[in-house]
Design a protein that fits this description.
217 residues; membrane; transmembrane helix; transmembrane
């Protein structure tokens, strides 16, 4: 098996450097709780694994070549992002109305959430997974970009699995490093007013991303 590893690694690193919906999910989750951030990162990569398997067996080709299926997946992904954003904005406004969003003091990030640590982890994983699995551009990567680095004389499916697995592993390292950095926001967000602004900002960003995904060709 001979693949263009240098070229592929360059494309993957550039792709991860450009923030997308999964970036926002991971950062927002990590700011609430590092464990939730890592769960969101693993969920995002699990979503890529789903696209990798679909590409290897040919299902992604059906999605991308069928306008109806492609648009359905795209709109579902957009709707999910908008829902995440609306939930964040409404939650921020409810907390502000209930607490007055004082300048100082208050509970640390995530303390007001009535969930166990395992519940936060599952929620983070599902958000990361759904964000990527409902992103048709991820499917396009695996069936249009990735095959450009495949050696036509070898097994295409096996090479797709190899390159896809490499992509996922690189992503895990990248996301976990990002979680370590983003987790430092917890100190800043311990102040209710700062957390209120953070939740509003990230909520509106989710909504904007969802609208952008829906409007994209």
């Amino acid at each position: 098996m001979s693949v263009d590893l240098v070229g592929f690694l360059g494309v993957v690193l550039v792709a991860y450097a450009v923030p997308g919906p999964d970036f926002l999910v991971v950062v927002r989750s990590a700011a609430e709780d590092p464990a939730r951030g890592r769960a969101a990162a693993l969920g995002a990569q699990a979503g890529l694994c789903a696209h990798m398997v679909a590409a290897a067996v040919g299902l992604s080709l059906i999605v991308t070549r069928s306008p109806v299926v492609y648009d359905a997946v795209k709109l579902l992904g957009a709707l999910y992002l908008v829902c995440l954003g609306v939930r964040a904005v409404l939650a921020a406004r409810r907390k502000a109305a209930g607490t007055g969003a004082p300048e100082d003091g208050g509970l640390p990030p995530g303390a007001a959430v009535d969930r166990t640590g395992d519940g936060r982890g599952r929620s983070g994983f599902s958000q990361g997974f759904l964000t990527n699995v409902l992103n048709p551009k991820a499917a396009l990567f695996f069936i249009s970009v990735l095959p450009q680095f495949v050696d036509g004389s070898g097994s295409t499916a096996r090479q797709i699995f190899f390159l896809g697995a490499l992509d996922v592993l690189i992503g895990i390292v990248y996301w976990f490093a990002l979680v370590t950095v983003a987790a430092r926001l917890r100190t800043l967000l311990a102040r209710p007013k700062a957390r209120h602004r953070w939740e509003l900002t990230t909520g509106w960003l989710f909504i904007a991303l969802g609208i952008g995904v829906a409007a994209a060709p």
